[in-house]
Amino acid sequence: MNPHLAQLQPYPFEKLRALFAGVTPNPQYKEIKLSIGEPQHPTPPFIIDALAKGLKGLANYPTTQGVPALRQAIAAWCKRRYDLALDAETEILPVNGSREALFSLAQTVIDSSRGYVPLVVSPNPFYQIYEGAAYLSGAEPRFLNNLPDNDFAFDYNSLSDEEWARVQLFYVCSPGNPTGKVLSLADWKTLFDLSDKYGFVIASDECYSEIYFDEGNPPIGGLQAAKLLGRSNARVIMLSSLSKRSNVPGMRSGFAAGDATIIKKFLLYRTYHGCAMAPPVQTASIAAWNDEAHVLDNRNQYRDKFAACTPLIGEVLDTRMPDASFYLWAKVDKLAPITDTEFARGLLEHYNVVVLPGSFLAREVRGVNPGANFIRIALVASLDECLDAANRIRQFTQQL
Q1: Are 119 and 176 in contact (CB under 8 A)?
Q2: Which of the four, 58, 125, 253, 374, has the lowest number of CB atoms within 10 Å?
Q3: Dihedral angle at the C-alpha atoms of 69, 70, 74, 79, nearest 10 degrees?
């Protein structure tokens, strides 16, 4: 067996199942699950119709590069959203959801022949795929703590010059999971300067880019930042997804875009890996990327939930409106000393609300787990359910 498999830690939801073993939820309450970032708004009917119309494509093998119409639809969306003029032939590649591409990108770009163990850097807390991708590419993960007292900025100083020289890939997530932080143009410049100095690739995970609150100030993207700073797309790959934007997590549809040299090698890797998107999914994806009305409606629903729930939860937990995304990142020990795991277990037992302990999303660095005593609350359920959950969280916390 691949020895790197032994380096993988249990996924957060495996840890959650173990944490909840033996807990009997209060039967007075219906379960409300706010632990997983799975959109629960209905899939727009026009996307379902397009998927059905594409079923005739099942008689054909799809190409890894996808049909030109899909790449052109993605390029047109990138132009509308970010004012990017991307070449649909050389700078865009459809992928089966950003998760799959985030993992396989590391297998493409990591070079273990240089006489040292490569490093893959990610935020901390972080999306666990980054760590697994690092290990299974033969690299070693390094984590930059998101500093709560400094607006969740990266602790760049936690790596030495020798370590930075070994970095080959840097995962960044903006809007961030779980903090909701959006990188500013100044943040991007710092990251680009480091990439230019040390030569590493930046993988910009932007799967939450369309969940934001100010219509006049959408989150800036990595390729957009490069353009605004007068920089090329060298060593920058943007990864985006329809899952959150269009409420189609089961479609597994997204794209990678950016540095044409990397995209060319990524296409080669994926051709052998067997990652072609199913024809009906391509047809539905074209329809989804070409429409913005359903995305605005989706944002409005999240905006209403955050406006209603954040003040209620903020009375008892240390939290605030995120810059974007659909998570509340809440510190649990505002009113009483309690750990994040104790809080999650007690909340399930007494009020049947499921949240995710923040420590499950982070790794200890220098004796500190930056997710400890935080919980991640995914406001993905209906407005009524989220309000119900917020009130249950208030009741539980006030009783501590």
Answers
A1: no
A2: 58
A3: 0
Nearest to 213 by CA among 311, 151, 302: 302
Angstrom distance (rounded) from CA 65 to CA 59: 18
Task: Specify whether the CB–CB gap between 82 and 228 falls below 8 A.
Answer: no
pLDDT at residue number 392: 98
Q: Rounded to whole angstroms, how far apart are CA atoms 361 and 375?
A: 10
| Strongest mean pLDDT among 1-5, 141-145, 242-246 | 242-246
pTM of the shown model? 0.96
- Of 229, 262, 291, the residue at which a domain comes to its end is 291
3-state SS, residue 2: coil
Q: In CATH, what number is assigned to the domain containing residue 228?
A: 3.40.640.10
Q: Which two tokens stand for residue 12?
A: 């957060």
The predicted-structure confidence for 363-394, as pLDDT tens digits, reads as follows 999 898 999 999 999 999 999 999 999 999 99
Please check the confidence at residue 112 and state whether its pLDDT lies above 80. Answer: yes
Helix (H, G, I), strand (E, B) or coil at 202: strand
Task: Give the total number of structural domains in the chain.
Answer: 2
Same domain, 386 and 271: no
Site of tokens 């930075």: 164
- pLDDT tens-digit map of 346-369: 999 999 999 999 999 999 998 989
Q: Containing domain of residue 386, as a range?
A: 3-42+294-398
Q: Are residues 38 and 52 in the same domain?
A: no
Contact between residue 123 and residue 173 where contact means Cβ atoms under 8 Å apart = yes
Specify whether the CB–CB gap between 74 and 257 falls below 8 A. yes
Angle (CA) 110-113-119 rounded to 5° is 45
